[in-house]
Design brief:
Elements: E1 11-14, H1 24-51, H2 58-75, H3 78-85, E2 91-93, H4 94-127, H5 132-135, H6 138-164, E3 173-174, H7 181-186, H8 193-226, H9 231-259, H10 268-292, H11 295-309
Parallel strand pairs: 1-3
Antiparallel strand pairs: 1-2
């Protein structure tokens, strides 16, 4: 094929979730509300964990990093989508699109790795409770978080560099609300075989590897819990894992459905709503899932609110 017939694009057009004018205002208000809840909820979790010494444990260190990843994950896509809803051009520059792809992949991978680390934390806490402080030291936790960051950036860099090698035709319209891998590959003029191969090999290893680690961890946890003689003890052990399992089910269920399929069967129109689930809805729900199912977080939140309301007023000194 002659490359002289190809036109290099300087920008892309993000068509968004809907092209109907009457749906733009409701969509803007809905996503603005969800974004505001996400930012405020995850920020509250981070602030609470930092300010309450009782929560300075490995479990809540990982949870605070997950909350931060959720804020960054959603901030990569939603602000641009809100801007484009009422934009006449709905444009994003070529480099801006690659940057959005990079950070989207990075923070999705970050959440993936952090969920695996949190499963390991629950495994040590339940299966080796007496050795928990000796195994999960502050240094080890910091190293594990650092490794999650490094692996996430390397994973994102690989797929973004491959995306940068693709050539795009005159049709630069993306029927999506952000620059995602498959929608970009769909409009490319050049071969996407290597990109697809890397998604289905390296991508599967990263995502399914973490998921397999979580499954093995919970298999060991379930085996240990079933050996607990009292029903109350079993319920208490399982209750500490309920919120994590809920997030895992939503995150991996939607992620697997969207990406681990052949490019030929990928339809942007069909997966947009599912994409919204793990890019916007899940990060918004995470603070509520962890706070509503976690007694320590609820108790710390109540104490913080009580301290704010009962804070003694400064005495006013009056002079005759």
């Amino acid at each position: 094929m002659e490359k002289t017939n190809w036109t290099s694009v300087s920008h892309f057009v993000l068509l968004g979730i809907s092209t109907f004018p009457e749906e733009q205002t409701p969509l803007f208000l809905l996503f603005l509300l969800m974004y505001a809840i996400n930012i405020s909820g995850n920020s509250a979790i981070i602030t609470l964990i930092i300010s309450v010494p009782h929560l300075h444990t490995p479990m809540y260190l990982f949870l605070s990093n997950l909350a931060l990843a959720d804020i960054c994950f959603t901030s990569t896509t939603v602000p641009k989508m809100l801007q484009n809803i009422f934009s006449a051009t709905k444009a994003i520059s070529y480099m801006g699109c690659l940057a959005q792809t990079y950070f989207f992949i990075c923070f999705a991978a970050m959440e993936n790795f952090l969920l695996a680390v949190m499963a390991y934390d629950r495994y040590i806490a339940i299966c080796h409770p007496f050795h928990y402080p000796l195994i999960l030291t502050r240094m080890l936790c910091a190293q594990m978080v650092a490794v999650c960051h490094v692996l996430s950036h390397l994973h994102a860099l690989l797929h973004t560099l491959l995306m940068g090698q693709l050539i795009f035709c005159e049709d630069n319209r993306i029927p999506h609300f952000f620059c995602d891998l498959y929608p970009l590959m769909k409009i490319s003029c050049s071969s996407t075989h290597l990109n697809t191969l890397m998604i289905h090999t390296e991508g599967v290893i990263v995502i399914n590897g973490a998921l397999a680690f979580i499954i093995v961890s919970y298999a060991c946890i379930i085996s240990a819990v079933l050996r607990i003689p009292s029903a109350n003890g079993k319920w208490k052990a399982f209750s500490t894992c309920g919120s994590h399992l809920t997030v895992v089910a939503i995150f991996y269920g939607t992620l697997t459905w969207v990406y681990f399929r052949p490019l030929s069967s990928y339809s942007v129109a069909k997966v947009r709503i599912v994409t919204v689930m793990y890019t916007v809805v899940t990060p918004m729900l995470n603070p509520f899932i962890y706070s509503l199912r976690n007694g320590d977080v609820k108790e710390a939140f109540k104490k913080c609110v009580s301290r704010i309301w009962n804070k003694p007023q400064k005495a006013v000194i009056s002079f005759p």
